[in-house]
Each structure stands twice: as C-alpha cells, then as structure tokens.
Amino acid sequence: MRLPQKHRIPCFLPIFLFLLAGGVFGQQRAKIRGYITARPDEKTIMIMDDAILFGPGIGFQMQDAPPGKQLTAADLTVATMIEAEGVWTGKHQFTADKIKCDWDQLDKQIREHAYLEREPAQSAELIGGQPCQLRADGEVLVIDENTKREWHGRAQMKAPDAPVWLGRQIRYSGRRRPDGTMAVQSIEIGALPPADAYETPGKRKLVRAQDAKTGIDILEFRKDKKVEGRFKLFPVRDVQEYVSALGTKLIPPAAQNPPMSDIEFRFYVVEDSTANAASLPDGSIMLNTGLLGLIENEAQLAFVLSHETAHVLQAHYWRQENETRTKRVLISIGAAAASAYVGNVAVFLGQLGLAAVANGYARRLENQADRLALENVVEHGYDPGQAIGLLRMMVSRYSDRSTSATWSNHDSSMLRGSFLTVQIGLRYPRQEFKKATVDSDTFRAMRENMGPVKIM
Ligand SMILES: [Zn+2]
Hints:
The protein has helices spanning 13-21, 103-106, 123-128, 154-157, 237-249, 289-292, 298-313, 316-323, 335-339, 345-351, 355-359, 363-379, 385-397, 410-427, 441-450; strands spanning 29-35, 38-41, 44-47, 50-63, 81-90, 93-102, 109-115, 132-136, 139-143, 148-151, 169-176, 182-189, 205-210, 217-223, 226-232, 266-270, 277-279, 284-288. The chain is of the alpha+beta class. It folds into 3 domains: 26-105, CATH 2.40.50.140; 109-192, CATH 2.40.50; 197-450, no CATH class. A hairpin with a 2-residue loop joins strand 14 (217-223) and strand 15 (226-232). It has a 6-stranded mixed beta sheet. 30% of the residues lie in helices and 26% in strands. The termini are far apart. It binds zinc ion. Zinc ion (ZN) binds at residues 307, 311, 360, 366, 369, 406. Zinc ion is lined by residues 307, 311, 360, 366, 369, 406.
C-alpha cells in the first residue's frame, strides 16, 4: 500500500538538515583560545583585540578539576588561559555559549624550571640565606628568609667570584605577587645540562655548501656523509650578515660557559616563503624569507631571534623528549628528497621527526621561550611591545588560515600574542618603553637590500 503523500519523507529533507548544520542558515561555530588580557565587565572577556561576550545560558567547564570545584565567571581573571566556543557576531566580537579552562590555570601555585641565562646579581645573599631577588626564567623571583633553598654542590658555590651559577638549572615554586614578581616558596639550584642536550638527533649537522652546478650558496642537512636535504640560502650577503650580527649580539651570557659554550650559534636566512623560523638543538637558527619579509622593525626581529635562541639554550628539544611523553615517528628520508631544494623547512623537519623544532614545543616551553625573549629584548634596549605588534599582525594576516608553523598559525599567534600582553603587564607594570629602540637604520638598509620577497 502506498503511503499518503503527506507521510512520505521528502527526499530534500536530509539535504536541508545538512545545510542547516553546515551553517548556511545559522552562524558558523568557532573556537578561540588565548590568555585573558582584560575583564572590562562581568559578562565580557578580552583576548587582545577580541571581545568575548557571555551569551544567554553560557556554560562553564573546568577540565581536570578536583571534586567539588566548578568554574565560575569570577574565576576568569586576567592571565587565565581559556577556550571559548560560540559564534562571531561582529568584527572583534565573539558571543560564547561555552567557556572551558583547565584546573591548572586556576591553581595559583607556579612550578617551573629553567637554566640560568644570566649570572645572579645577588648570589652571595642567595647562598647566605638572606632576602634577595633572582632574575631567572624571564621572571623576578623574590626570595626571603622563609624560602626553602637547596642546592647541588653547595661547597663549590661558596667561592664568591666563581661563575658557577650560569647555565645551572633552577627549579622553583611560588605564587605571583600583585606587582608581577614571584614570591618563591622553594628554590633548588641544580646541575648544568648534559652536553648531549645540545645535539641534533642522529648527530645531524647543517653545513654551508655551494651548489656544484650553479655556484649558489646553500645549506646541506647532513647525517654522517649523507645529504638529507638542501636549503637555499637567501642570496643577498648584507641580509645574511645583518641577521647574523643581530642574532649574535643577542645571545645571553650563559652561552659563554660550558657546556653552552660548545653550542655554535649560527643564523641563516633561508629561502622559504612561509612565515616561520626554526632552531636546531645545536644552535643553527633558520629564519625564513617569508617571516623576515613580514617583520616590520628591528625590535620585532630581535624578539624572533631571542625566542629561537631561548629554545636552544633552554635545551627545549631535549626537555620535550625527556619530560613529555610525546611519541615521535621517525621517518627516514630517501635519497630522492635530497636531490631538490627543500621548499618548506617546517614540512622537511617534520618528515625527519623534528616537527617540534619548527611547529612548536609544548605550550609551557613556548611560553618560557617567549618570557625569556621578552626579557632579552628589554635587556638590549628594545621595546618589548613590538613583539605583541608582530603577533597581532600575524593574527589578522592568517585569520582564515591554519598552517602548522608556530610563527604563522592563527591559533598559535593569538595564544602567544595574548600571553605576551599578559606577561608584559605583569613583568613590567610601571615601565615605560617610549624611549626604547624600535627600529634602526641598519634594519631599514637591510630591508632595502632584501627587496620584495614572496610571503605565503
Ligand atoms: Zn618557539
């Protein structure tokens, strides 16, 4: 028996539902992640330039929360990292129906470790149990009589002028004080990093060479005698020399002492139109023409180079391998790959199992590199706010794209830009940077010599 007409399912209904779900009639759902940079009112959160409004019936969700703990609007204070889900309801305006946050964001106890990049100014007080301040890990650590202090090789550290602190690992726990400094509850001064923390896996080396046929300058990525890949160096010598001189000038003092003095820092501008930079554990830093072409001034470039240098000095590759349990799949590259030039450094390094080198380490290691880079640029007289300017530009430029590289990924730029905004606010709350260096004649001359480059 045939069903009456009205009981039949119209064949276009599934298509209609599909279109509805796909956002043709509704608004496209989106997610944004970042650190809260301001709380203008009870129902609004700012992440850099974007206002996140609390929609009706908004849900709050805390991940990994201890029993009985629930996320409330009041917990969403400046410096908390959140993920908001909802829809864009205007330019720089997002209406959220769900906000998620990890419990560790609300746990105000900070535990971190880093290698000392600078000799402490008050090492005698630190040893002697007196109150003092220690600049480390891009923070100001405030140590008092109640701070639990422990160290490795105490006797050796008593020699007053011996440079035994530089490069050592410090572990600290504490709480952020209202002035942005850290009240330290415990501090432990540990050992120097092992020398193998600064080796590229497989003892690979990046070696300068010349193409036999064309005579152009290249870099060869070698494992023993085998060439795994070849990168084209940007051919303008003045550009290479300027970037190398700036990078070298910015290397923190820790690099003067063993084992870090064995790191051979080398800065290269490679022809790759993606806006990215990468550093190998052995100190080879590759800056793509795509990123150099986007950088607006010397202060921004100083930040980029300092960030990559911090990954090297802080042994982030080694730490990522030893402290996190990320499984890596090593893919061996066939001889065919070596015959042509590498077009995308990040993709190439990913194929070698070195994805973190170009696509980013764990969030806390990236944050550490950003904190140390901010401190380093301030130390060299640059305006740290330019770093935010660079990431803000990347957010708008890559707003509708999502590449995997750390410097040109929209999600990563927003997270990093908001982190830097928070960090500058905490670390330099009353400092003025109006007189700090933004640009230089040498930077502008370099850009002139560089000419236009392709930027993806
Ligand atoms: Zn990084």
